[in-house]
Amino acid sequence: MANEMKSSNAVMEVVRNYMEERCASDPILAIKYANPAKSLEKALNYVAHEVQKSGLTIMDSDSVFSLILHYYDENLEDVPNVNCKIAVAKELTDTERAEAKEQAMEQYKEEQLREIRRQNQPKATAPKHTATAPKAGAEINVQPNLFGDDF
After folding, report:
1. Segments making up each domain of the chain, as ranges
2. Rg (CA), the chain
3. Neighbouring-strand partners of residue 7
4. CA 33 to CA 14: how far, in whole Å?
5. Could you tell me which residues belong to the region Disordered (predicted)?
């Protein structure tokens, strides 16, 4: 299998936890989830295939879980392997959120300070050029002599 999807352990863990929680409250889904012909790898490959067909590059978790449930509910034919990476968005804790906010504020302050300094710098003036030679194509004030150079 040259084109094979690589699912990270984090993705597998999130999907496994979701399915186990759903199976605890839905015995019919638990039976379908235990089907040896189906696996989490195949379910994620099905999701990747459906996302690829839709032309999307990102999908929210509710849509992903809906597709996984559809995979287990239906008798679907195996889809071709999809070469892709699947990532899980991490929800920030309150402390991580506070740290991210602090970093964003520091970055904003630095950008504003740089802009103020740039605006307060004296404007660089170009040195004025003095003409030492006539410009190309300009006529020189020389009157020709009709009697030659001797006069």
Report:
1. 6-86, 92-119
2. 36
3. 86
4. 15
5. 114-151
